[in-house]
Amino acid sequence: MTSTVDGVRVRTAGDGSPVLLLHGIGGSSASFDAQLAGLAPKHRVLAWDAPGYGGSADPDKPLGMAGYAALVGRLLTSLDAAPAHLVGVSWGGVIATRVALDYPEVVRSLVLADSTRGSGVDSERAAVMRDRPSELNRVGAAEFARRRAPRLLAPGADPAVAQRVEDIMAGIRLPGYTSAAESMAETDHGPRLARISVPTLVLVGEHDQVTGVSESRRLAASIPGARLEVLPGGHAANQESPRRFSAEVLDFLSQVDSVVAR
């Protein structure tokens, strides 16, 4: 089943407390196919295509991290899904973090998977992020994906999974990617992480070479009460280890929902 809010396509499955899945900068809702199935028996699962990705309309201009957070808030309210558990992978985790900071009333909990404080933590990382859209424009999405997708995977990853990750990345479009990259480049949530007040689980693939285990450890240490779990796989751990990923998320959400129900 799909819905559209403000030009954003949302895939939905299941019933129960709502969970919104926010994909990474090189992904789409298709990156969460396993989680849509794995979480649906106990939750109402929503997976968005961010603006300019998948089946969603292209943005007219960069939204900024604040714009993405505001859009998530409107989406959850429109779909009667607030407060929701937010599960964000990489860039999606940075968006989820901003939603928790700016609109805590729509957030029940956070799962930050292979995520980061943002690329604005230093000028070099910001510059590298801002340069990525020019590479995408120069070589095209298929070649861009062929070059970058292998970095998202652990050594010896299942070839079928590797191909799926590359195929999804090959579907990215310049307007969406440009807006996403700029939002990452402008963002450093580090100084604000201590203000997060919702239960938080931090997940990371043990072979993540994009954001890295150390960055996830920093997130977990900076967010009050957050817990860290290291999973098999690389940056795309939710696709490489979908059963373990979904099991960790289901266990965490069950704990949060049991407290809320009291």
Automatic annotation (TrEMBL):
One Pfam family per UniProt: Abhydrolase_1
Entry's Gene Ontology molecular function annotations: catalytic activity
Family matches, as InterPro entries: AB_hydrolase_1, AB_hydrolase_fold, AB_hydrolase_sf
Annotated AB hydrolase-1 domain residues: 18-238
Superkingdom of the source species: Bacteria
GO CC term (a single one): membrane
SUPFAM superfamilies in the record: alpha/beta-Hydrolases
Alphabetized Gene3D superfamilies for the sequence: alpha/beta hydrolase
PANTHER family: HYDROLASE, PUTATIVE (AFU_ORTHOLOGUE AFUA_2G14860)-RELATED, MONOACYLGLYCEROL LIPASE
Protein name: Pimeloyl-ACP methyl ester carboxylesterase
Organism (species): Amycolatopsis echigonensis
